[in-house]
## 1
Amino acid sequence: MKNNKFISLIVFALVLSNLYLFSIVLQKENSQGETPKETTVNKVVTEFDTSITKLVEETQNKVVSIITQKHSQNAGSGSGIVYKNKDGKILIVTNHHVIDGGDSYIVRFANGEEIEATLLGSDQYTDLALLEVKADLDIEPFELGDSALSKVGEFVIAIGSPLGVEFENSVTFGIISGKNRMVPVDLNNDGISDWDMHVLQTDAAINPGNSGGALVNMAGELVGINSMKFSSDSVEGMGFSIPVNEMIPIIKQIEETGKVVYPIIGISAVSIKDLNGFQKVNQNIPNDVTDGVLIVEITKDSPADKAKLESGDIMTSYNGESVKDFKDFRRNLYKNKVGDSVKLGFIRDGQEMEVDVILE
């Protein structure tokens, strides 16, 4: 009896052993040939939302692409922003250099619709232009922020079409890196800076094609029109935008009159610092005089002529502010309007003098 029990235990152990081996073989075969079950993906990532994504959703369709054409051929592209939308007319603000040299313009909206635009006017000094599109589209224009209240370190996004419409409505993120920057600009491509643009600095990426696009604060307000960047192997993250407060008076003039009117004083002049030694001797200018503007010619019956300014006078101040070069003079002049009276300080025959000039 004991032997029968012992034999039964041995048989039961062998059965268990065979079952274990069979399960290992089956698992191995399944791992080699059986199709795995479908993996369930958690959708947290696709539903991820932030204040930035909401901001982009609210503002992205207010930015457009602009295709500049010359003789019906594409000559360049850039970006623009919806400034006004009323009575079937959509006004688009962009950069002067985006439309410069073109004779026709196509505005491509965020929904992909392309409509021909009319150029209402532009200004090379502020690098601003205004286009009009006749269309009945449901697009809210940008709310305009007060760029004077923008703070260094404030978060902003830049929206535009870098490198063309293929990358339209690209969004970059950064901060305002600086305010009240003065960036030298060569307007006539002679290699000499003849104007200083007043701009906001940002580290949000701005690339060719972003020009004319939007710089937007976290409240969804437009604070700048993206205009340029420093491009160099040694420079990174230096983009510049025209502040909205600089934009508004220029665009209003273009909207109302089709042009920007700057006052004139009626002189031809050159910066003292641009004169060589021979020229300074020829004009009787001491070598230690390095700042100021030499008046070379006076236009007949101009404000300067009426104020009795003369060629050879050296302008040194404008309304109490020192004038170091011609850019200083022009920048101060363009702050005024036609009809304003300004006080000019100048040197004539070694004597410091002042005169009031009524601008025309």
## 2
Amino acid sequence: MITLGNYSTLKVLRRADHGFYLEGDETTGDILLPNRYAPEGLAIGQEIEVFIYLDQDERIIATTEHPLAKVGEFAGMEVAWVNKYGAFLKWGLMKDLFCPFREQKQRMEVGKHYIVYVKEDEESHRLMATAKVEKYLKNPSDMDEDEPQLKHGDTCDCLIWQKTDLGFKTIINNQFQGQIYDNQIFQPLYSGDRLTAYIDHIRQDGKIDITLQPTGRQHTLDFAEVLLRYLYENDGHCDLSDKSPSELIVDRFKVSKKVYKKAVGDLYRRRLITISNDGIDIV
């Protein structure tokens, strides 16, 4: 089934002056892939993956370009222009994505970035964005039994949503609300950033605490090897001990003091380092 705002793999039926016609279905009919999007060497009978959306004249059209998000996904987008009906967002396609005023939490401004959800308008059936993303986030308890259940230590996709007094709100796996706390952040973060994170704790209210560093024993072992390599590259010495200020540890190694102390302890137990008031030294 071909759906608006999503990807489909379609067969090339014929060529015209303005592009290639791809095999559609009873609802869409044949779909034009304009010449500007057709890869070199595209041939009749070949199958090609395309994104389906509406052009400037509201006709169904195909493109090989990839938008920042498809229907049902969240992304950070910049406002390209505004008119009396709403804002138009840059989402990676020639036609900007419309966000009407009724779907804005505050009046959007040209040049600023906002986290939005892409959907098909129920009335007009046009693709649109909404900044009221909370309406489209799920609770982990609502997952079906046959869906993979989130657990401590799992890797997840993380979209940075907005700054809070505690850290940053995030959107996890394009479904759930998450939180990264300030004491778990060791790099600059900005709304719209996408990065890999790790499940730390699923709270009773359904919100999820995450961390940007792997959790558990494996993270300690991984950083212990990083620290050992640092020692080899710096004449066998590091002037930071397990009693050094956390700010110095974060600044140099981008890990928490807790992780640093565990790694130092691991290397010491393996008799690979000695510990003194001046720091640590390789044996």
## 3
Amino acid sequence: MDEAWSNAHANFLSSLSQSELAALTKSARKIVYTKRAQIFTAGDTSREIFIVLGGCIKLYQLSPGGKEIILWFCFPGEMFGVAETVRGSAREIFAEANVNSTVLVLSQMEFENFLCIHPQAAMRAIGILSARIRTLGHSLVDMAADDVETRLVRLLLRFGAGALPSPCQAARSSPEICLNIEVTHNDLANLIGTTRQTVTSTLTRFRNQGLVKLLDRHIHITDPEHLKQMLDAV
């Protein structure tokens, strides 16, 4: 549905050749984080680049009033912590394991050396990060131009088109889409700029209309075509 969204969530690791992947992982280390564990916080020194091997990482900021504002969910193969590390500045955001997750960690020097030696991989990384910036820009436009229902529909369909973890094992009928990511109603509200109560009531209405169903803390889109038609009518 949204090419920029799909490109922004592209799996950097799977785009590498065998030799590139071997060079990248040669000096990297793996760290396992339990659900809700902090990977870094705003103000921390930034000296490392992270790549998700498994699980999901939530990137967010805190408003002056302490409200959590979600910026991004990183899925397997995605990079994070790049901007501040390359600039040599302190962390400006928080990174937290949304579920039990495994992360590949490289020092700034290791990552920069890898990109210098493998320019094609560097161009792919630049393309992914550029698409992420475009996608965040589109999200700001959506918040200004769309009502809450439209923003939620757009987010669900974008998740459905992105690089989410493999679908769950529950039986699905075509063209049902499994959004196999644990997100709370509060998470969804933070992503589209509304309240948890509004997301809950909107999802309940969608469920009553047979458009979605909730299963084991994640969402299935049961009628994606209807949701697309709702966007076309905007």
